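Onboarding guide, step 5: your first structure request.
Type a short instruction followed by the sequence, for example:

Predict the 3D structure of this protein.
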Amino acid sequence: MPASSNRAKMPQPASPAGRAALATSPTAPSASMAVSPRPAAPGFMASGLGIALFSSAVFGISGSFAKALLETGWTPGAAVTARLTGAALILAIPAIPALRGRWHQLRDNWVTIMLFGLIGVAACQLFYFNAVARLSVGVALLLEYLAPVLIVLWMWAASRKRPRPLTIAGTLLSLGGLVLVLDLTGAVKIDFVGVLWGIAAAVCLAIYFFITAKENDTLPPIVLASGGLMVGAAIMWLAAATGLLPMAFSTADTKLGPWITPWWVSLGGLVVLATVLAYVSGITAARALGSKVASFVSLTEVLFAVLWAWLLLGELPGAIQLLGGVLIVGGVVLVRLDELRGPDPRTGAGTPATAPLNHANDVEPVP
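The system replies with structure tokens like these:
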């Protein structure tokens, strides 16, 4: 994902700072310049593409680290709580200076922070980890990536306005891919409780996209990420204290590929790599590439998740499930391509089905 989300509406740059930088850039066209020198092509990392791929790679490893802990006796709630608590404390270090003393930004945006923490962080990750406990990492993540399709279906039903053909094609392609991922006629029966957890994660991701569809340039993305993680951690601890959420930790060694490692190695990877570095690099990439391009690159997270699960857990979906995964990702690509086109200038067709994906914050509740 999630991701879910790192988004500002195109074709404008992702932030007021980005728009100002564009306006004052020495490579921008000028009326006083007869011939403008051609700027040098940015390097792979400087362009933001390398950073975006790195973000997808470290986000994609979260399921493998989590499953290594779950197999030693950790509950999904314990893994999520430890992940959120550790990451929130670390991200608070850059978040406080980013506020620059403007503490009123927290007060003005407390609803967004609370909803991001509750739905985009706590619920989304808890449901995803519950799915990972019962399914392969790749299948669980593919189910969560159905969120854009759920948005299209919901908006179609609510507005009674048919999306454009490209969005419909993408939706049908993803739904067909879902059937293959479930592999209903396969020899190995899939755990349908795990499927329900994965779909629940997709619903949370879709709800988060709706919540953050409103333009909001008043809250630094790193502050939203840190605040949401703190809220999510507090909610998880509260649920554990009241007995609503089972909590079980273990200090047994974990197995990652051919290595037997202490439990804190998997937990540290989950916190530092798959959360802190993933969020920071994702925000950086979104600012460099723009929201739409970054959202397309983030789809590679599914590929990285499958690769990491194969290398570290020995998990690899079957051929039919892999084909279904290709169809799901292909369908999401079509939906986002249609979103990139924008509404029909004459009829406005397509706007209801794709508008929720145009959210302004540079933070997405990706697992």
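Each response can be followed by summary notes, for example: The chain is about 65% helix and 0% strand.
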